[in-house]
Each structure stands twice: as structure tokens, then as C-alpha cells.
Amino acid sequence: MTNITKRKSGLLIAVTIITSLFLASCANNDPVGSSGGTSKVAGRVSSTNGLQKSTYSESTLSGVQGATVVLVQVQADGSLKTVSTQNIQTDAAGKFVIETNLSGTGNLVVVATKGTTEWKAIVSSKVQSGTTVYAPPLTTESTAETNIYIKLVSEGHASDFDEADLKLLLNAQAAGNIQGDSQAESDFIHAFQASSQASAQASGNSYFGLSSSQIQTMMQAKADAEAKFDAALYNSSDTETETENSMDDYEGTVLTAYSSGIANAYTYAELMRIGVTTFVNASASMNSDLRLAIAKSFYARYAFVLNYAMKQQFQAAGASNAQVNSVASAGADLYASIKSSADFNQIATAFVQYHSSIISQLQVTMSSYASMIDTIDSTINSTISAKAVLNASVNGTTSLNTIINAYVTFFNAVKTTTQTSLVGTSSTQVNAASQILILANMN
Asked: Are 60 and 191 contained in the same domain?
């Protein structure tokens, strides 16, 4: 993965300050600036239309000029209420800055039209008087995301999902499969909603030990990261590499926040794994091409988070820099294999290979316990093991309680086995080894 080995550090307050400075610097690129008492949203309509950007030369990456733009607020019934002070048109680069008298308000969407074509994008940040916030580029992809967002709001599920998850999962290929297909849209909404609810419900499980204030802080960290993500996309050239880098930065910012007092990065990985499994199970009736496209996007995100958490745990276990680099390389290979997978079997094979690499590195790191680590891992993977029970429990089910409880049971079983077996080493190493074995076996 591009930048998958990039190390993230710093306290949540530092992340917030950096994000604020980043957004302030982006404001200097606004077509009309940020002065005055109104709230402003900057954006652009992109001619790429969310297609695979690698197929475009840089010269074709231009904006749509002369599109009429309005800012609307999504109402509880899904209707759109115009809240901009006036209609404006995009410039030669497809850019616009639209104003509203609202302040401290969310649930906003930018809508652009030219002829019979319409584009939409979700404005993640709340607008504030005297400042400019950013919408991501308006494309076919962002339009599909926004239509789903509007439908979720109209069905009363506005608080059941995270907008960033919607934007990150619904990639260009998936958007192409959904656009104009009401059944595909409904199938996606069903699976996406189930996944979001599973992660949220799991966050409240006593196993993770997250307080309501920690969960609230986590959500704020994600909101800050999403604002930075949208601004980065606005200022990009729409290349695939830039988009992936922006996605990495989003996940890295959230993980930095997790590691700065909210929780451990492995908690985020465990919660995401629960969400991935729920999505895959809930999407069984989905169009196969659409299902695979979104699953690959989901698994790729998970691979980034998994790699970040795994490196942290290896450092806690006493790994050398060379060993941590080997772990990072295994994570990069996992990501690349997921991206190139042609089916779910190839994704599964990629995780098996990753598991093998991680266990080998753990044996090198804790060389005095290499034989015992092999025994523990074999026990976890035996036919009557905790992992076999986990797989049997979650196979095909869409019951959130069943999925969550199965994973929590698995986590506890691996911890107990590891703590019982690794006698004579420090509690820090035991805890790290336990977590490494959990993460390596969540495939």
C-alpha cells in the first residue's frame, strides 16, 4: 500500500491543530476567499466522473465549467432544502465557492447540474460563519455516495453510520455498479448499515472497555480526519495515488487518535474486523461484482489498520527495527494481494500468507519461546480450536449479537491460551504476543 509503512505519532490535540492549520492553508486556494460573515463551501465538479483515474492522462483531468451549483440540507424525509444564498456556476477548473447564512449546521449536500447531468457530494464538515469548509470532488462516485446518504437519512438511520466509511468503501467501481440500479443500492445499504451497527454495538461491549466519553472522542477524531480528507481531495489532481494517500492519511489520523489516549490501535482493528465480517455476511445476495468491489475496498482498509496495530504490538514485544520493517512489508504484501484479488478465495489466501509471515516474525522476536509460539498458534488453528468455533459461529449469520459474541469469545480464548503458555516472560511481552496472535488469526 502506498505509505502503508508511514509511521503516525502525536497527541489528539496535535492532530486537531495540524488539521486546522491544513484547512486554513487550503483556504488560500479558494476561488473567492473566506472573508465575510457567511459560511462557505468550496468544491469542484470533476470530469473524471469517479472512473478509474489511472486510465486518464493528466491533461484530461479537468473540471466541468458552467455547471449550476446549490447547497442543500437533507431533511428527515429525504427531501432537499436549498440553503445557499444564491445559485453559482463553476469556473473553468470546475471550482466553486457557495455561501449560506447557516452556521454550525451539518447534513449538507452540494448539488451541481449541467444540462441533464447532475452531480452531488456530501459536505462532511459543519459550516461555520466566516470560514470555508470543503466538499470532495463531485463525480459519479460522490453522487452514488450522496444518494445512499440521503436514503439512509430518510429512513431514520442518520446516526447509524459514519459518512467517512461510506466514502471510503464505495469506490469508483462499486459506484458504477450501483448507479441507476435500485436493487444494488438497496443491497448495499442493507449490508453497509449492518456493518456500521455491528461496529458501533461492539464498541459498547465490556471486552473493549471503551467509555461513552472515549467513544465520543473517537467520533470527533474521525470527523476531524474526514474534514482533512475532503480538503485533500479538493486540492488533489484526481490521481489514483493521491486518493490512496488521502485515504491512508485519514486512517492514520484516526489511528493516531486511538493511540493517544482513546484506546489501542488493535482495538480499532478488532472492531473493523467485526464490521468486515458483518458486511460480507449481510451482502450475500448482492450482485457478485459489486460485492467483491466493496469487499476488496473494506479489506484493504482493514489491512492498513491491521498493519499499523501489528507494528505497535511487535514494538511492545521487543522487536528490532529490522523485524518491525519485515512486519510492515508483510502488511504491504497483504494490501497489494487484496487489491489484485479476483475473488474471495484469493483474498483468503492473502490472509493465510500474512498469518504465516507474522508468526515467523513473532518467533524471531521472542526466540526463546519460538517453539511455544508455534504450539499456541497450532492450538488456535486446530479443528476443535477457538478459531474453528469462531468460523463456525459467524459463518453466514447476520445476527449482530452472534458475530460480536463469537469474536469476543475468540479474543478471550487466545489471550487465555497465550498467558497460560508463555510463563517466565514479562507481562508486556505476553500481552503483546496475545494481541499479535489474535490479529494474525482474524482471517
From this structure: no
| Encoded amino acid at 103, one letter | S
Q: For residues 25 and 123, give the distance between their C-alpha atoms in angstroms, rounded to a whole number.
A: 19
Same domain, 389 and 312: yes
Question: For residue 340, with 0-12 CB atoms within 10 Å meaning exposed, 13-18 middle and 19 or more buried, which class applies?
Answer: exposed
Partners of 368 in beta bridges: none
- The set of cell numbers assigned to 307 is 498493519
Between CA 385 and CA 378 the distance in angstroms is 9
Strands 95-100 and 108-114: unpaired
Tally of domains within the chain: 2
Q: pLDDT per position in the chain (443 positions), as tens?
A: 444 433 333 323 333 333 333 333 333 334 434 445 899 999 999 987 544 443 333 334 468 999 999 999 999 999 999 999 999 999 999 999 999 999 999 889 999 999 999 999 999 999 999 999 999 999 988 999 999 999 989 988 877 777 888 888 888 788 888 888 889 999 999 999 999 999 989 988 999 888 888 888 888 888 889 999 999 999 998 888 898 899 999 998 888 887 776 678 999 999 999 999 999 999 999 999 999 999 999 999 999 999 999 999 999 999 999 999 999 999 999 999 999 999 999 999 999 999 999 999 999 999 999 999 999 999 999 877 889 999 999 999 999 999 999 999 999 999 999 999 998 889 999 999 999 999 999 87
Rounded alpha-carbon distances, angstroms, from residue 231 to 103, 201, 401: 19, 30, 37
> At 91, which CATH number?
2.60.40.1120
204 and 64 in a common domain: no
Question: pTM value?
Answer: 0.84
**Contact 210/217 with Cβ under 8 angstroms?**
no
Q: Do residue 70 and residue 188 come from a single domain? A: no
